[in-house]
Amino acid sequence: MSRGSRSRSTVEHEAALDTSFDPLELSAASEWRELSDGGYSEVYKAHLLGAVVAVKQATSRKKTSGEALLREIRYLRQIGPHPNVVQPYGAFVEHGKLHLVLHFTRHCLRSDRVARQCDPIKVIAGVARALVRIHSFGIVHRDLKARNVLVEADDTSILIDFGLACDLRLDDREWIGRTVGTKKYRPPEMRDGRPAQPALDVYSLGLMCSKLVRQRRDAHSSDESSLSEDGREERRDMRLLLELSEDCTKSVPSGRPTAWALLSRLQRHMGEEVTRCDAPRSLVPLGRSPSALADAARGEIAGRRKRRRNSDGDRSRCSRNGSRDKRGREESGSREEIREKRARSSPEAKQRS
User: Fold this and answer.
1) Is the four-CA dihedral 184, 218, 257, 168 of positive or negative sign?
2) Alpha-carbon torsion (19, 24, 25, 30), positive or negative
C-alpha cells in the first residue's frame, strides 16, 4: 500500500490547541492495513506508540469527503469525551488529504457473531446513552445503524461515523433537510423531505433493536437451554427490545420516545441507577481547529510547489545559516525520512560509526 508522506512542519503549523498527539509517532503508512472503504473515507489499522488505532483518511473519489471528515472532527470536539462515543486522538493533513486518528475497537454490531454473543440490553443502552449526549448538543447522527456501532469486550457500545451528522443550531437549512444515510434506516419524515430532528435517530435505533432480536432468535432457536434461567432472561430482554422497537418506529416523530426515556427504561430493566453517565462538556484536543485543518489541506500542495521553486535559494541560505536550515529541511521531509535522519544523528549511531 502506497501512501503519501507528510512534513512535521505541517503538524505544528497553525496549531490551535495544545496536544500531546504527534503524527510522527504513527507507524509508517506502508504498514497500515485497510479495514473498510466507506462512502467518504478509507479506514486503516495503524499503531500509535505501540497502541492499535484507526486512521480515517478522506477519500479522493468524492469532492465532499474532506468536508465530511471536517464535520466529524468538529462534532467530536464539541461532544467531548464520552464512554459511548468514539474517542479521537488527533487529526492531520498528509499530501493534501485529511486524516483523523481514532480509538480502535475490533468488533462491530453488524457481525452476527457479535450480535448473538453480546449483552443486547447493555449494548442498546450504550447507544441510547450516546444519543442522549449528542442530542444535548443539538447534533443528530443521521446514519445510525449496526455498522456504525462498535462493541468492546465488556459489551460497551461505541457510536462512530459522524460524517453525515448535522447540528440543528449551527448548520444551514439545506444540510439539515438533506436526505442522507442508509436508505432502509431512514424514517418517513426524511423520505418526505422534512428537516432532521433527534427523533430521526430514535427511529433508526428502533430498527436496530428489531434486527438484533432477529439475529439472536436465529441463534437461540435450537438452544436446549431455553427453559433455563438464562433462557428466561433472554426472552425478557427480547420482549423489551421489541417493545422499544415498536415505540421508536412510530410514523409520527412526536410519538416516539426521547433517547433519555429509552435509556431510563433500559437501565431500570438492568436494575441500574438511572443516569446519563455524561462526562463534562469539554472540547477534545485535536491539535488544531477544523478551519485550520481545512486551510492546511487546501494550501499544502501549493506550499510544496513553492518550496521546490525556492530550493536553490534555500541551499544558498543553508551555507550561511547551517543548523537552522538543516532543521528546516528535516521538517519538510516525510515521516519516514525524519525518523531515519534522527536515527543517524543519535549519539548511539555516532558511537557505532
Assistant:
1) negative
2) positive
pLDDT above 90 as % of the chain: 42
Residue with cell 461515523: 161
pLDDT at residue 225, as a whole number: 54
**Which three cell numbers, joined as nine digits, stand for 323?**
543548523
Q: Residue 200's closest CA among 173, 226, 182? A: 182
Write down the pTM of the prediction: 0.74
Pairing state between β 157-159 and 149-151: antiparallel
- Name the 3-class secondary structure at 288: coil
The Cα–Cα gap between 62 and 69 comes to 12
Residue 236, H or E segment = helix 229-248
d(CA 275, CA 45): 34
How confident is the prediction for the chain on average, in pLDDT? Answer: 78
Cβ-based neighbour number of residue 214 at 10 Å: 11
